[in-house]
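Example S7 (structure tokens).
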């Protein structure tokens, strides 16, 4: 079942969303993102799915191109290495500024992407990268990406705390 963080919906049943991204969700390279941890307790595939779905919803609400938004969300972190173990190449700056370029290169090699999708992929880390987004949808994906990362980390921490409930109850009883 495909599910986005903070949502109870089975995304497979969201026909309009799935019609935008079904070819990507069937692609082995996109599915391979599930092999990489991304944020605490989240794989890169799950993070990309989260960004894709919420980007689709928010751009649709704002009357923007929700199909391109959904597609770019799935491709915005399309790189195949563990970012924590990645060694910089000659002339490379930080992972934060380099991974959008790598994702853009990979997406453009693997798929036919439009200019809007390309702008969203390459500029999704703005303002950490200095390139100003050209489209309103790109400003949206920058916000959605940060929102999803925060939600993923907090959800993971919450579930970790719940597993330690007996200790928390003991502390609460001790304090009270």
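Recovered sequence:
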């Amino acid at each position: 079942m495909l599910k986005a963080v903070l949502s109870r919906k089975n995304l497979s049943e969201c026909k309009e969303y799935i019609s935008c991204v079904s070819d990507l969700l069937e692609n082995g390279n996109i599915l391979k993102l599930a092999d990489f941890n991304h944020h605490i307790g989240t794989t890169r595939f799950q993070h990309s799915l989260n960004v894709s779905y919420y980007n689709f919803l928010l751009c649709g609400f704002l009357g923007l191109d929700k199909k391109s938004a959904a597609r770019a969300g799935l491709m915005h972190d399309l790189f195949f290495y563990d970012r924590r173990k990645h060694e910089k190449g000659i002339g490379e700056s930080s992972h934060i500024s380099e991974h959008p370029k790598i994702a853009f290169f990979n997406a453009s090699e693997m798929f036919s992407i439009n200019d809007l999708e390309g702008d969203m992929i390459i500029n999704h880390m703005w303002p950490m990268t200095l390139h100003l987004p050209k489209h309103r949808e790109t400003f949206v994906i920058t916000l959605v990406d940060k929102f999803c990362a925060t939600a993923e980390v907090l959800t993971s921490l919450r579930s970790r705390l719940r597993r330690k409930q007996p200790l928390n109850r003991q502390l609460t009883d001790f304090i009270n």
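Notes on this example. The radius of gyration is 18 Å.
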